Amino acid sequence: MGNINAVTDLAVEGNVGVITVDSPPVNALSADVRDGLSAAVGKAVADPAVEAIVLICAGRTFIAGADISEFGKPPRGASLHEVQATMENAPKPIVAAIHGTALGGGLEVALTCHYRVAVPSAKLGLPEVKLGLLPGAGGTQRLPRIVGAAKALDMVTSGTPIGAKAALDTGLVDDLAPEGELRAAAVAFAAKIVAEKRPLKKVRDLEVKGGSPELFAEFRKANARRFRGYEAPEANIKCIEAAATLPFDDGMKRERALFMELMSGVQSAAQRYVFFAERQAAKIPNLPDDSATRAIRKVGVIGAGTMGGGISMNFLSAGVPVTIVEMKQEPLDRGVGTIRRNYENSAAKGKLSAEGVARNMGLLTPSMSLEDLADCDLIIEAVFENMDIKKDVFGKLDKIAKPGAILASNTSYLNVDEIAAATARPQDVVGLHFFSPANVMRLLEVVRGAKTAPDVLATAMAVAKKIGKVAVVAGVCHGFIGNRMLSPRQREANKLILEGAMPWDVDRVLYDFGFPMGPFQMADLAGLDIGWSKETSKGETLRDRLCEMDRRGQKTGSGFYDYDEKRNRTPSPLVEKMILDFAAEKGVNRRPISDDEILERCVYPMINEGAKILDEGMAYRGSDIDIVWINGYGWPVYRGGPMFYGDTVGLQAVVDRLKQYQSTQGDDFAPSPLLERLAAEGGKLSQYSVK
Ligand code: 3HC
Ligand code: NAI
Q1: Which residue's alpha carbon is at the smallest distance from atom 3 of ligand 2?
Q2: Overall pTM surpassing 0.85 (yes/no)
Q3: Residue spans of alpha helices (H) in 73-132
Q4: Domain-embedded: residue 597
Q5: Complete DSSP assignment for 207-220
Q6: Three-class SS state of 324
Q7: Please, which pLDDT band fits residue 1 given cuts at 50, 70 and 90?
Q8: Which ligand has an atom closest to residue 289 CA?
Q9: Any idea what the CATH number is for the domain that residue 445 is in?
Q10: Residue 228 belongs to what domain range?
Q11: Into how many domains does the chain fold?
Q12: Of all protein residues, whose CA lies closest to atom 35 belonging to ligand 1?
């Protein structure tokens, strides 16, 4: 409790007034913090004993930004711009003392202070672009005045913070303070400013360096692909351009106008929703945040194939020893070799040191015996997707693993309860469904079996956090959340190319929607022969026929598309003819298919499937489903995920279109009862949670 208000305190040390903001968890600029700051600066300025002011925060961080939860609500208390004006125009120097993260509005407040001091571990940045926004409190006008236009462009469009040492080099901070001694160092710095009669440095008075028209043109060109579909990066660039070309006050007006535009748009609403959805996904209903977890000090991985290798890397990189088991030497050597090569590639790109490679590889123990997993706390099975093999593995594990060890399966589709039943300890069994490449993709589906113990679930969530994954809990059903929703999209994509579209039409529509690639490009990339064999192929599907012709995707130089040696793809006339012949054989009268129909038929059944998943309690919340699709399948974050997108379109409109397709395409399109109910009630899928 502070002496200014509930979250702000003013103390006087010698001739320095120290304002402390203490508003957990991250000192976001809520109305209370803004009011407190405003009053505290006023009081310090009015106190004749105070000659300089330090602004410092309690807890884990300096101000981490505007309070995102206030966005879209009626304004309360002093505006941030008013608080900043009070600070910047104060007649006494203000020193920001930074630890943790000075982000967004937090850094913008620091930029209206006259000096900045930080501990070496501090990070400073303007991450608004990640929320579909731009720094709306002068950040785009002040930052380039210190770090120059080029660096500012980089910082505002990436949203990535820089460390305190880099900030010192660019002039963003004036001095570094020893770790743990920030307050004393900042007070000493402030006293020195007074003693040396240093000027009240106002960032707004500086010139922007390096803002030539060529810089902006080149930056736009070089990043066009990265910014594809997003509105915020371009608005951020425009603001830096304004800083470079307009007087400060005009630049501020431009920033304000563009900020308001983004703030009222769908993209930012979607991205802000995703920010909270991601944090929400980590919470399991009826399981308190501080639930007991099991200690995971050593991990076992069974299978050193595509997934086993990537899964192992997650733990090795986090410093957790891994024993990896294969049945034969050759696949074991190959798997370990791939892990090493991946680390070496990272090292070649400068992302990992040579010692880092050695350290990670030193934590890996290859083995051909399941017995070597006896002392593991968590064992993850990633063998072939075959129930008999998985049951056999779990049956053996049951005899080997120590009591309390968590036994996990990386199965994509199989019934985790059936796998658990192969052991005498189903309470210790859980699904841990990683996404390929498992060392890269952020998503982890945690599959909760009927008997999975609460502490096993809690441990799985904690482990996910430790290895940098976003975990979402799913129930046991075919394909869990993600793959279950992928199925109807795939079904419709295949039907559409029979009825009249071409693979490249479907791919283009989904790419333009914002996916990194369409389903046929994806199939070519993954290989058309997954689950296909020459011996059993009957040429019944287009895919069978392509594989029979050895058009198995990128790896054979052709699939749905033709590829050149640089893997550039072109639509294949041969495939086009095959599709026409195939349709004729099946008696399908091809017709022109609009882009709208392609999009609706690929996406609306996914929304419908998501509603069924919620209705069956296979996901806790609509927002969890969105997190799965954004992090596992590249759903464009600016569309908020399939559930949020359904809400954006309007659930009644989705239901109406589904019914229309139902009349021509059959009951695959029958709307789920939950979807119909929410549409009728004006409810939202993205807000839906299972009680
Ligand atoms: N507003 C409101 N709540 C916030 C918040 C913010 N800016 N930042 C974090 N929180 C909340 C989180 O929702 C979470 O709440 P919960 O515990 O109830 O789930 C809690 O604080 C802790 O957050 P994290 O779990 O993310 O904690 P970490 O320690 O992992 O990370 C962080 C801390 C680096 C500060 C991270 O939270 C973060 O990146 N926050 C967002 C920073 C940001 O985007 N700032 C810009 C805001 S927009 C802005 O400033 C506009 C301005 O230009 C006008
Ligand atoms: P893979 O074929 O690349 O690797 C499987 C490995 O397991 C092989 O190296 C094989 O030799 C080994 N193996 C088989 N039986 C074994 C046993 N009894 N003991 C020890 N090792 C054994 O297969 P992949 O792609 O890695 O898939 C593994 C699992 O992960 C499957 O259940 C799959 O459904 C799932 N999965 C796959 C994804 C993908 O994109 N490939 C994505 C997510 C899950």
Answers
A1: 305
A2: yes
A3: 80-88, 105-110
A4: no
A5: PPPS--HHHHHHHH
A6: strand
A7: low
A8: 1
A9: 3.40.50.720
A10: 2-261
A11: 3
A12: 64
Q: Provide the Cα torsion 494, 539, 528, 489; round to 10°.
A: 20
Distance (Å) from CA 238 to ligand 1 centroid: 26
- How far apart (Å, rounded) are the C-alpha atoms in residues 92 and 153? 31
Distance of CA 356 to the CA centre of its chain: 25
159 lines ligand 1 (CB under 6 A): no
Do residue 15 and residue 77 come from a single domain?
Answer: yes
Residue 464 belongs to a domain: yes
- 257 plus 330 within the same structural domain: no
Tell me if 409 CB under 6 Å of ligand 2. no
Digit-coded pLDDT (tens) for 381-424:
999 999 999 999 999 999 999 999 999 999 999 999 999 999 99
Which residues does 325 contact at the CB level (< 8 Å), separation at least 6? Answer: 300, 301, 302, 303, 304, 332, 367, 368, 369, 370, 372, 373
Alpha-carbon gap, residue 129 to 160, rounded angstroms: 10
Whole-number Å distance between alpha carbons of 129 and 445: 27
The amino acid at 388: D
SS3 track for 598-641: HHHHHHHHHHHHHHHHHHCCCECEHHHHHHHHHHHHCCCHHHCC
HSE-CB at 180 with a 13 A cutoff on CA atoms is 0
Under the banding of pLDDT at 50, 70 and 90, the label for residue 289 is confident
> CA–CA separation, 562 vs 551, rounded Å?
9
Alpha helices in 20-138 (DSSP H): 31-46, 80-88, 105-110
The residues facing 433 across adjacent strands are: 445
Angular region, 302: left φ>0, alpha ψ -120 to 50, beta rest: beta
469-519: pLDDT as tens digits: 999 999 999 999 999 999 999 999 999 999 999 999 999 999 999 999 999
Which of 108, 381, 445, 499 is flagged as catalytic? Answer: 108
Sign of CA dihedral 536, 537, 543, 549: positive
Q: Would you call 108 a catalytic residue per the annotation?
A: yes
The DSSP code sequence of 393-440 is HHHHHHHHSPTT-EEEE--SSS-HHHHHTTSS-GGGEEEEEE-SSTTT
Tokens matching residue 494: 């295949």
Amino acid sitting at position 673: P
Q: Is pLDDT above 80 for 624?
A: yes
Do 147 and 216 lie in one domain? The reply is yes
Q: Are residues 180 and 61 in the same domain?
A: yes
Query: 632 near 656, Cβ under 8 Å?
Result: no
Query: Which atom of ligand 2 approaches the CA of 328 most closely?
Result: 11
Rounded to the nearest angstrom, the distance between the alpha carbon of 586 and the centre of ligand 1 is 55
Atom of ligand 2 nearest to the CA of 413: 34
For residue 22, give the amino acid letter: D
Residues 88, 128, 231, 597: which is the catalytic one? 128
Q: Is the CB of 522 under 6 A from ligand 2?
A: no
- Structural tokens at position 185: 């160092």
Helix (H) or strand (E) holding 665: helix 651-665
- The amino acid sitting at 107 is L
Cα 621 to ligand 1 centre (Å): 21
Would you say residue 290 lies in a domain? no
CA distances, 330 to each of 323, 333, 336 (Å): 16, 5, 10
Asked about 231 being catalytic, the answer comes back as no
| 230 CA from centroid of ligand 1 (Å) | 21
Beta sheet of 101-103, edge-to-edge order: 101-103, 123-125, 162-163
CA of 381 to the centre of ligand 2 (A): 8
